Amino acid sequence: MDFYKNEPSVLLAVDCVIFGFNGDSLDILLFKRAIEPEINKWSLPGGFVQAEESPEVAAARVLKKLTGLGNIYVEESAVFGDPKRESHRRVVSITYYALIDVHKYQHVITDDYEARWFPLNDCPPLIFDHEEMIRVAKGRLRSKAALYPILFELLPEKFTLPQIATLYEKTYDIVLDRRNFNRKLLGSGLLIKLKEKDKTGSRRGAYYFKLDKKVYKEKIMSFLRYLPSWNIDSE
Description:
This protein has 235 residues and is α+β, with helices and mostly antiparallel strands. The chain is built from six helices and nine strands, in the order ββββαββαβαααββα. The chain has helices at residues 55-67, 102-105, 130-145, 161-172, 178-187, 213-218; strands at residues 11-21, 26-32, 42-43, 46-48, 73-80, 91-101, 116-119, 191-198, 206-211. Strands 1, 2, 3, 4, 5, 6 and 7 form a seven-stranded mixed sheet that branches.
């Protein structure tokens, strides 16, 4: 017996905000939409939740299908349910944000959907409310990154201090006092210094580091005092 036959029909979708860091900018992965409405326009990757799926499983499926990526950091961002967000049908979308190392996964991103990385602050016009989805996801990312080591998901296993500083500057849209930032970061015990150097930027080079995740968990609040004040709602 259909107990809900007189209730309105609403489609449930998932949209994925995929962040990447190329060493110089915080980027977002966009696709040319392959279906109507708004076909061939830039869009976040997404799809509809199937009857046998949870939203989390649907998001993982969409990410795997459209990018070939698996075992990446994914977290729920927000729900978008304005009745007028799509004109053709009532669609409620749950958004998720994902963090990937651009260089590590660049070779597996499929060409079938005309995928392209764009700087977060220089994206083309997007369909529906996808620009708002990105704005909200960036705010969630900032909040979480102030407390937990999730930004390191965007970095290679070994990285330099300038790379870390650039990543935080691009994420928070700030300019750090790098000398002070590096001093506090090195004094925190969060990083393990390696013997190797990155000499692509200068002859002297910069030492590589890796994250000591055990120490990070013990000092998880330390990053809060490194960063100037910022306001999620001021984006």
